[in-house]
Amino acid sequence: MKYFFIPGCLVMLMMAACSPSSKTNKEYRKQAKEYARILQEYPVRDSAGLNYAGDWVGTTNFSMRRPNFVVIHHTAQNSCEQTLKTFTIPRTQVSAHYVICKDGTVHHMLNDLLRAHHAGVSKWGNNADLNSSSVGIEIDNNGVDSFSNQQMMSLLVLLGRLKRAYNIPTANFIGHADIAPGRKVDPNRTFPWQRLAEQGYGYWYDTTGVQVPADFNPVQALRIIGYTIQKPESAIASFKLHFVPSDSSIVITEEERKILFSLQKKYE
Ligand SMILES: [Zn+2]
């Protein structure tokens, strides 16, 4: 019997339409293989090119690092197809672990244990490399419309799975605008953060009977919650987008002082 070499894509073409993802899946495999090779290397060479070859002793007790945050985005694009394309073109250098389409379809694009490029320049508390410590979820949305029911159902299932799998603290479900004030405004004002908080993903406030002390500092409260307060007005805008979406001003009202005081207690 004679064997002929037939490229995989051609075989698929003969069977059905050649999926556009087959090419990028092949590239994914290639890159994952390269990282697997690095993980198997020892003595370990660090990113500065140094190693401790002579004194290397491999421990027997270890596991993979795990994500400790979830960062939620809207894509600001017009379709899932457009986003999948953006995340599979090398020159864009942007990606997320998951993309949730309007019909609720969830595209898993990267192993949760690997680093996606979704957060950019960002900070939350003292954490200045959110890409290294988070799972990024992009929801297909043009930046204005509300999110579909199917998207929210899929998102909640996914959040549950991530929280359980990696033991992610309730406080650590945040939005891109939270970690990049003044630079990002996603997910948009319509995103139901309260609904998420009610199910254990992020915190919400309760201002019932709250008495705010006279010396309460709302900007310090923002810092305690996690916001970077280098530009206080940007932090206030991001806070309102998340917790008081009906108010787009950057003036902190008496009610918002109560909200911040209530939240500060949960985060500190
Ligand atoms: Zn974003």
In a nutshell, what does this entry contain?
This protein has about 270 residues and is of the alpha/beta class. Helices cover about 40% and strands about 10% of the residues. The protein has ten helices and five strands, in the order ααβαββαβαβααααα.
Which keywords apply here?
alpha/beta, Lysozyme-like, 5-stranded mixed sheet, 10 helices, 5 strands, binds zinc ion, EC 3.5.1.28, N-acetylmuramoyl-L-alanine amidase
- Main β-sheet: number of strands, strand sense, barrel status? 5 strands, mixed
Count of alpha/pi helices: 10
Overall body shape: globular
Biggest sheet, spatial arrangement of strands: 3-2-4-1-5
Distinct small-molecule ligands in the complex:
zinc ion
- Helical content band: 25-40%
Low-confidence parts lasting 5 or more residues at pLDDT below 50?
Answer: 1-17
Please report the distance between the alpha carbons of the first and last residues. Answer: 72 Å
Structural class: alpha/beta
Write down the Rg: 22 Å
CATH superfamily of the domain at 69-198: Peptidoglycan recognition protein-like
CATH class of the domain at 69-198: Alpha Beta
* Count of strand segments: 5
InterPro entries: Amidase/PGRP_sf, Amidase_domain, NAMLAA_amidase_2
Organism: Terrimonas ginsenosidimutans
Enzyme class: hydrolase
Protein name: N-acetylmuramoyl-L-alanine amidase
